[in-house]
Amino acid sequence: MTSQLRTIFNKASSGASVFVRRQTAFLLLMGAVSVVKLLISAVAPASMDLRDTVQYVILANPIPFGPWMTLDSYLFSLWQFITSTPIVPGQWWNTPPPAMSANLQLLSLLFRLPPFIFDLAIAIVLYFSVARQHSVGLGRLACLLWYVNPYTLFAVELLGVPDVAAAFFTLCAIIALVRGRTVIGSVSLALGIALKLYPILLLPPILIYLHRKIGTPISRRIIIVAAALVGLAAYVSWVFPSGVANLFLYEYSPVTQTLSLYIPYQPTGVRVSAATLFLVLLYFAIWRFANSSNITDFILPVFLTYFTFTLLYPQYVIWALPFLTLDIVLVKRRRVLLLGLLLTCCFAYWFIRSLAFLTPSGYSLLLFPLSGNNLPWYLQALNSFLKANAVGVVVLPVIEATLYGITFIYALEVIRGWFTTTLSNPELK
Amino acid sequence: MRRRGELSRLTLAVIAVAFLTKILLTVFVVPVGPKSDFAHWVGGTAYTFSLLREGSLPAISRTGVYTGMFLLLAPFYALWAALPIAHPPLSQAIGSSSETGFLLVFLMKLPVILSDLIAGGLIASIVAFFSSREAALKSFFLWYLNPYAFYLMVVSGTFDIVPTVIVLAAVVFAMKGRWASAGVTLSVASVARLYPVLLFPVFLFYAWRARRRFSVARMALSFAALILVGLLLESVAIGSLNSVINSIIHLPVAEPWLSDFITFEVGPYISLTPIAVVAQIYLVTAYWKRGAQMAGIPNAVLATLMALLLTSYHHSYHFTWVIPLLTAYFALAEQSPTLFIIILASAYFDSLGYSTTNSTITLFQPLFAGIFYGTKAAYLLKINLQGLGIPSKSRTFGSTSPLSKLLQNETVIGARRD
Q1: Rounded CA gap, B190 and B176, in Å?
Q2: pLDDT along chain A (429 residues), means of 10
Q3: Nearest C-alpha of chain B: how many angstroms from A290?
């Protein structure tokens, strides 16, 4: 049985490897996936996050907050210019996919176009950075592992949130800084922090790596720190005027980095942020022990430790996914199993918690109906299952514990790599 | 060429100036009010003194965990009471700008001021055991001129430095193999504050490791003797040993803040604190390198206290218990001051949000608390790695700092190294 499975797996692998070996197959696959992503972007209903984001734009809030909402306001203006259609607030996100007109589909596509562009941009950056340093085959593998990953379609295009943009800037920043391009790297890092704040968590390990492995002079490291502070100031400047206590620091918002994740808010008593505690401990451990040539060995533990001690929203995985991709392609291929488990658990957890990704239209984000009188029996069964008591009491906690266990184990797996001297693949430099 | 222990005139002058400055700041600058922590301590001490003057002891049911400290502070209050000045009610005396008010503050803060100085001396003594005279002097100034340590001791209005100094003395006695003295001082510290009780297993372990005749017995009996004598005296004064034991058992109920030390709960019946402390003591006894001998005592005590403070919601002034030994550790074991500065800075910022209604500070308090607790964890990891024999860079004081230049005329005599 095992040998049969292995034979099937080997055949599938060799079949799939044509996309890595042949340029034509690779480009065709990339093109096909792009078309699929754009089509789904057009017809999928608005996610709750997208609705929350766009609500402010369509309702013409006099204080549009942040670069992402400003971008969405321009896209909305473009849509109005193209279609000359007035829109009632809620008309788009309350309309189920079968009832969406061409204009509403265009609107859906436009709002999801920026995440798609950054998605494709990350794929291109991964391809060229790996291909240039190692081989074209590895470059294609890294590109496909990111771009064809179904989780990317879900967390980027379907959710329609700006985390992918911050991930793009962070990836560019790290690649540029490792290659000695201080200015480009610093600007990218500042843009990432200004957009979503979380890249600032990577500043200590980046500085340690540059000092220890690259020998970056202190003047350049000061430039990097200064850029990070500029990014932080920019983030604060657009977040604070839009409401400090009630919205951005204690409650979830799709366009900001909720500080309550590492500054937990409780009305009384002493509060210690577990995420901050373990991040500080990790920074110390990196400073004291990390001696790997791979920048991913410095970066990934920060992401994974942060994920372990905070509420892991599905789009937060996108922050780490480019680096997880590089880790698998260049360091240890077997970790793809850990990654697969992590993504599966995260998807399953939020599938259950959000009642199959229910959207305001009554449809799931995965394009099947969840409300109405004529639901097929299997969807009715799904609804009943998701609302069952046992699911919340037994199934969800088990999946949640598994998810955080995997993030912790992956972090330990990467940390273990600090102390080993042999690598299965050449390192990213 | 100076003899061992002799200091240069310049060094003595610096210490004298710092000492006088601290007295002036403590008495005339740092505000004390009739409802401050300091006022409560003075009130309890006054009550204890009045009982002692009548020939009786304060009941634990009335004075709680503070009984021992009140007894230690009573002589200083007695000095004030004996002065030929007016003695208005404490609510009027404390915080007043009169001679009697300043004298009260000076005499009642004298234990803190003296303990501060003695702590510096004991830290230098510990460092001198392992390193050079110059390193010892530097560690003294590192403590004595530490603004955060002074802030904690004086502004908080508490007396935690007093039992801390007594614990330091116990550590020094233990390092010198004087186990009876170590036991007595540790028991005095335990009576003044409860936390030194946790250090008894550590001292006992090192007494056993000393492999000297009756060292364990000396340590154990001297520690127990004072506590037993105290219990007996208290029982005689109250008239019932049973009620004394009952009072001790019901201390967590009488003092709810004690539960802050067992607040990191891992289940309905157990918290992380005892697990962490026991695990730390176990690490020391089972895995720390045997070759370290008595040199391991300061680190073992520091690690145990760090484990306690890492897994409990302690007040800011409780960090005083750790800073002296942390200073000694930093002086001996660290090359970069980064972690040391971060832990003190984060402790300060964490303490700002502890009891304030300022919404901005309250907002960021958990972040500072996270950094503070994270650096405590980092130190705990570092100390344990050193104890386990995993090499770390030893500190070499640079010769270009102003502090080094000040002490350049101090010559190294008979440097003792581990």
Answers
A1: 21
A2: 68 76 91 95 91 77 71 89 79 88 91 96 96 92 95 94 95 95 96 93 95 90 96 87 63 70 50 79 91 91 90 92 95 90 94 91 89 84 86 88 92 87 42
A3: 14
